[in-house]
Specification:
binds flavin-adenine dinucleotide; 7-stranded antiparallel β-sheet; 22% strand; 18 strands; alpha+beta
């Protein structure tokens, strides 16, 4: 294996022994040595193509590493697999301010991209807690969502062009800066959200936006789910399409994220049923006044119990820091199980109440944190437990997933399927959809080398 790669990769691009085992498959598992036959770190597309061409011919299984922040076991590997890490392909190739596009290699870290385009007074709106580690290739491969989907869409709606290396080493490149292109099948869509099972993303051209001049945020305490939905409609209507965030936290989540183990004090007192973190971004000089007025009306109409607004950039960081610090919840749990449910927003209140109630009755379950991107119909559950048996995991999965088929929801809103959710795919996709997914996999990766065992068998 190593001999072939030594022909075209430099020594520092091929890792084995301790250099390999000192790495890990996930940023949250620093103690777990990486399992793999070898790891390679290509520096350009041609090298990725040569690596995959050889693996295809030799039926060598491959696992792709981006920033290793996925929450579905997407970067797990075994001792026989070859790992391709895209971390060396981390150049921002072009920021085209006039076309409002950026072209990147896939190993560029999200936060670095955000900061680079900010220098040009432009915005790449994708934003989530793992922005300091997640790479654009991994983000595109998982079609990540995050905190501003309601306004700007998922990753899919931000990708204009892609360069992808297929399993057999063929390079498919279309890095056009155009929004509209109906010249037959939109091939890039195949790879967005394919979790590395159909090809390796090496470059991308992405959409940028003018940066709104004003950003306003507020925490709002609400005491009924009907009012949560009414508040969403009210704020969205009042802010004329500029509402960019509407995050919800159930009480246990809010108390933990602002409690003694957190770096953040609580902006609102404890005791409300729901805590909403709302954000609006716009360029109207009256933007803040408009937001204040909309929140005042919400209080007057009894949609909200209490409101606190962020009035400085330090306060924005405080409010959003609370929402982004998922690790504080994870640290509370001896073992944890993560969920990423999609449902029509009006159905979430009842669904969450029933699931939390059922889970709380199980003695080995210690925590049930519920929070998420409510305007997108997406909530996350972090279930803490004192037992890591497969039986309990399965029982929890059934409680969370079982109602979703009837409610026309999804077992994954934004994190993907990976290995963790594969057994439950039938709750979201019907047999003919799964058969078509297998046909695509067979056509694009006939030797079944890419991210084996992820999403489908
Ligand atoms: C604290 C925290 C908060 C998070 N919040 C959110 C959130 O709000 N919204 C959200 O959607 N996700 C969220 N996530 C999940 C995660 O950040 C995303 O899934 C992210 O998009 C993964 O990017 P990555 O570079 O870390 O990819 P990795 O974890 O390295 O890989 C993800 C998958 O893509 C494959 N892959 C990686 N790079 C490539 C490539 N170049 N070509 C093809 N396949 C590739 C991998 O094999 C794997 O299957 C969060 C994670 C954490 C830890």
């Amino acid at each position: 294996l190593k001999k072939y790669f030594e022909q075209f990769l430099k020594p520092h691009q091929i890792l084995d022994g301790e250099a390999l085992t000192s790495r890990t498959h996930h940023i949250w598992e620093p103690e777990q040595p990486l399992k793999a036959a070898l790891m390679v770190l290509p520096e350009n597309t041609d090298q990725v193509s040569k690596i995959l061409g050889w693996c295809h011919q030799n039926k060598q299984a491959v696992v792709i590493h981006g920033g290793r922040t996925n929450l579905v076991g997407g970067t797990e590997s075994d001792d026989h697999e070859l790992i391709i890490s895209l971390e060396q392909m981390n150049t921002i190739l072009e920021i085209d301010a006039a076309s409002r596009t950026v072209t990147v290699e896939s190993g560029v870290i999200l936060q670095n991209l955000q900061e680079a385009v900010q220098q040009e007074k432009l915005l790449f709106p994708l934003n989530f807690g793992a922005k300091g580690s997640a790479q654009l290739g991994g983000i595109i491969a998982t079609n990540a969502g995050g905190l501003r989907v309601f306004r700007y869409g998922m990753t899919r709606s931000l990708v204009l062009g892609l360069e992808v290396v297929l399993a057999d080493g063929t390079v498919i490149s279309s890095l056009k800066k155009i929004i509209k292109d109906n010249s037959g099948y939109d091939l890039k869509q195949l790879f967005i959200g394919s979790e590395g099972t159909l090809g390796v993303i090496t470059k991308a051209t992405l959409r940028l936006f003018e940066t709104p001049k004003f950003r306003v945020s507020a925490f709002v305490g609400v005491n009924s789910y009907t009012n949560v939905i009414s508040l969403l409609k009210h704020l969205d209507g009042s802010m004329g399409g500029t509402l960019s965030g509407f995050e919800v936290m159930w009480p246990m989540t809010y108390q933990t994220l602002t409690g003694p183990s957190s770096r953040h004090a609580p902006p609102l007192p404890y005791g409300f049923e729901y805590y909403l973190l709302c954000e609006s971004m716009g360029s109207d000089p009256n933007h803040q006044a408009l937001f204040e007025e909309a929140l005042d009306q919400a209080l007057n109409q009894s949609l909200a119990e209490e409101v606190v607004m962020a009035t400085s950039s330090a306060e924005h960081d405080w409010f959003w820091g609370i929402r982004e610090e998922v690790d504080v919840m994870v640290d509370k749990c001896m073992y944890d199980q993560h969920f990423d449910i999609s449902l029509a927003p009006v159905l979430i209140g009842d669904y969450a109440q029933k699931v939390i109630r059922t889970l709380s009755k199980i003695e080995l379950i210690t925590h049930c944190f519920c929070f998420g991107h409510l305007a997108d119909g997406n909530i996350h559950l972090v279930v803490g437990k004192s037992d890591n048996s497969a039986g309990l995991s399965h029982q929890i999965n059934e409680i969370v997933y079982q109602p979703l088929k009837e409610l026309q929801g999804s077992i994954s809103a934004e994190h993907g399927i990976g290995t963790h959710k594969k057994a439950y795919l039938q709750h979201s996709k019907n047999p003919s959809e799964i058969a078509l997914m297998k046909t695509l996999k067979q056509a694009l990766d006939p030797n079944y080398i890419l991210n084996r065992g992820k999403i489908i068998d």
